[in-house]
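Re-running the complex after MR caught last week's input typo. The corrected sequence lines follow. Everything else is unchanged.
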Amino acid sequence: MTTPQTPAAAQPLLVADGLRKTYHLPGKDTLVAANDVSFTLPTGGSIGIVGESGSGKTTVARMLVGLVRPDAGTVRVDGRDRTAGRRRGRGERLARAREIQMVFQDPYLSLDPRLTARQCLATSLSLHDAAGAQGRIEELLDRVGLGSREAAARPHEMSGGQQQRLAIARALAVNPRVLVLDEAVAALDVSIQSQILRLLVDIRQDTGLALVFISHDLAVVQHVTDETVVMRRGTVVEQGPTERLLTAPENAYTRALLAAVPRRGWDPAAAVRDRGAAPAGGRRSGKAQED
Ligand code: ADP
Ligand code: MG
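Corrected-run output:
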């Protein structure tokens, strides 16, 4: 492990610098999914990336966690280059996994259907730290509010909210410094959305975990982030303190996104409900009773 060049306090935890990703479409067309995306995240900070569907949010998320190799730009954690694509040993890949974890929109797709919640966490812990696993499993279940009944359940026996709690617990198992949440509450019912958001706020407060909160919905990120990046067609159109963006947006697109979000004192559950149509990805139906 290399030593950071400057003391940890003097540099941000996560630095995305000039990230760019181009996709080649059938024929001669290319599509710039993300262009010159830069932001910093302090230790224990919380940043939102918002924009409509197709604006490049997931592409940025995948570059942050090393699933997509940028055409240009770097991702640094504690001053160490963590950009995907260079030759990496297993040790270095594990080190990055320990630093940045990701939670996806649909937990069901990322959970092994054969494993109970407890087995899922045990598996994840064994990759990194076999010692003391049993105590850690209980601690993680407790941390995300899963009881003994859910601990013994397999994903199909759990509600969407419970599945996402498990996905969060699994991400936390390696004690990451940063959690990237890509539309992590988009598929959940509104009351469950606010439960999961509150859970993440608590975890951040208690553990100093930093969050990258990605959503097409400004209403979802406005109460849980300090800073927000607004993306449109792969480009950052505005970024700054969330508070300032909400009260004095400079960009017309930010204002349009804001127009869809009710004012201060609003009830998030009512706001999402009033909007009516299901967000991209659709809502779950026919699932077990929500938690
Ligand atoms: P968002 O998460 O904001 O909806 P994405 O990052 O998923 O946006 O996509 C940004 C753009 O890049 C979209 O136009 C999408 O179709 C395109 N894109 C994403 N991934 C790929 C891929 N693997 N191949 C080709 N085009 C892609
Ligand atoms: Mg996306």
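None of the earlier attempt is carried over here. Residues 276-290 have pLDDT under 50 and may be disordered. The CA atoms of residues 223 and 242 lie 9 Å apart.
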